[in-house]
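Tokens for Aliphatic nitrilase. Go.
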Amino acid sequence: MTEPATIRVAAVQIAPDLETRTGTVDRVLAAIAEAAGKGAELVVFPETFVPWYPYFSFVHPPVLTGGEHVRLYEDAVVVPGPVTQAVAEAARRHGIVVVLGVNERDHGSLYNAQLVFDATGELKLKRRKITPTFHERMIWGQGDGAGLKVVDTAVGRIGALACWEHYNPLARYALMAQHEEIHVAQFPGSLVGPIFADQIEVTIRHHALESGCFVVNATGWLTEAQIARISPEEKLRKALTGGCMTAIVSPEGKHVVPPLTQGEGILIADLDMGLIVKRKRMMDSVGHYARPELLSLVLDNRPTAAMHAAAPSFPVLSGSPTDEADDADRPADRGTDQRVAVLRGAPR
């Protein structure tokens, strides 16, 4: 390991600005400066924090969400663009690694994206949540295996997953197999109720144990006024409370500092990177404790695309017999000629 013995990290639990993207970005930049001022070398924000998580889609039926959905499109983040430029500059200026959740707009689609900026300001990773959950499927498209990647940063090897992706053991294993040292988890927060916070805690502590890495998790927060703005119905407002578990967990599955479950704040913790080896000495899930001859993972990490350019299936025959003779020595062309000959001889 080339990392320093101790790394200071920060996990942010604050409310977005539900009115403007600019307001939320301003809060992000202020939190980056505050975390850096406290000596943090890594700062993590909640799931799709910019411009805001689509809480409206959880408490309203699709037929009533059109206006808010369009507004989310209008304020979503284009990568690269002005928002990523501002965050990259802040990361570079403060010399801090930043992990930010955004609603990414790619032409006519939105995606739940996680962005990892190195301390130099370089965007090291843009990944998209591979399977949006329940109500989220009306909002976001699906990501692909290209984002299941661990990247080297100034604080070590970072992997990231969003929310219920942590319930996909193969997605987690893909990052474990790439030897992540710090796993970044992001959840929306202020959702479902206290049971969600309990589930988050179990999930991130288990991953820390199984992966033998640190987990830095950030969840969002909504004020009472914001909850009332999202839904005027009291019964529905109850679904927009609880679910906050901003936490930092060691490879031994322990909280490094007490978690933040209420209100706004920034957790700061010092990570003893030597604990990774101490844990993996006992149990390395992708090393001496693995049985790859019995169980292994196949990951298709190719980016998906709606269109692929391909060469014609058959050659266009033109030119003189001399041209054909000159082409006879080309292996690819000989293979094509053989296929054409087989098709010509096929029964009709």
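The two ends are 66 Å apart (CA to CA).
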